[in-house]
Amino acid sequence: MTKIETNTTISLTRQDKTCPECGGYMIYRYLNKRTIWTLQGPITIKEYRYACNNPHCPNYHKTVRPEKQLAPPRRKYGYDVMAWITQKRLQEKKTWEYIVTALRKRGLPMTRNRAIDIMKYYLTLASNIIEKETLKEFQDKEIAICIDGVNPENGPATLWIVLEASMGKPLHAELLPSYSKDSLVDLLRRVRTKLEEAGIKIRGIVSDKETYLVNAIRKVFPEVKHQLCQLHFIRNLADPVQKQDKILGSALKNSISSMAEYRKLYKKKSTTSYSAAFAESSA
Q: Which long-range contacts (CB under 8 A, 24 or more apart) does 149-154 make?
């Protein structure tokens, strides 16, 4: 599941640079930059967009998004905020005043109407309205999908989102009341059935390296290629470096503090020696 640090800039790029239409190699087109709000605060997302370079392809110069998406297209609130509002309102029966106040305390710009709009968008996303349009668009085609879960406040409910990887369009969204291997297996089976009924073939899956999720993917999609998200891989590589950097910083701070005591002793000794020398010369 996605964890975001405050005041962070995240770069997202295509992991699969194969054109979903003709199978050719896509090239870099431009950088799209936007800021979204998460439960931990605002983050800046840099999306590196790619497009097919084959002039005979229907997708020639049509840009595609990175597989990993932290927020819906053209929306400024992350999936974690959507899940949190939905969970608080529908499952915990919290008032809109409570929800708005709690989000404002976190620094998020929020009003009652905006919170309602966010929940409605999630409910629409979770319904078949948007999904049917996406399924129709990719009918009888072969696609890669991205699977991600958002667990607001580490609560029991998890919002699982399945996106078409090249354009980031939603295929399935579901709020699971509990997080377990069996519940994920059942979820992925529903996703597979839905795609197969639409005549859509899955050529690849991108996800986080979570044990339950990885095992569920292997069980439901044993023949499909599975790739781990590079964003989380790179972040995991950076964790040991950050820890060592903190240790080094603390050691350096302690060293500087101890040097202050030596400076005091040196200054005191120097003053005493100067006073003695002055007294001797005066005599």
A: 149/1, 149/179, 149/208, 149/210, 149/213, 150/1, 150/2, 150/78, 150/79, 150/80, 150/82, 150/83, 151/1, 151/80, 151/83, 151/179, 152/39, 152/80, 152/81, 152/83, 152/84, 152/87, 153/39, 153/84
CA angle, 119 then 121 then 126, to 5°:
95
Instruction: Name residue, tokens 């996703």.
Output: 191
Nearest to 26 by CA among 59, 53, 49, 61: 53
Highest mean pLDDT, choosing among 119-128, 258-267, 273-282: 119-128
- Is residue 21 over pLDDT 90? no
Domain span at residue 30? 8-237
- pTM score, whole prediction: 0.53
Q: How many Cα neighbours within 13 Å face the side chain of 255? A: 6
CB contact at 8 A, 162 and 170: yes
Domain count, the chain: 1
Q: Indicate whether 253 belongs to any domain.
A: no
Rounded Cα distance between 265 and 53, Å, is 71
> For residue 151, what pLDDT is reported?
67
Asked whether residue 271 is domain-assigned, the answer is: no
Task: List, for residues 203-224, the tens digit of each pLDDT value.
Answer: 999 988 888 899 999 999 999 9
75: nearest Cα among 114, 30, 49, 29: 114
Contact 14, 41 (CB under 8 A): no
| Residue at 1 is within a domain | no
The answer to whether residue 228 sits within a structural domain is yes
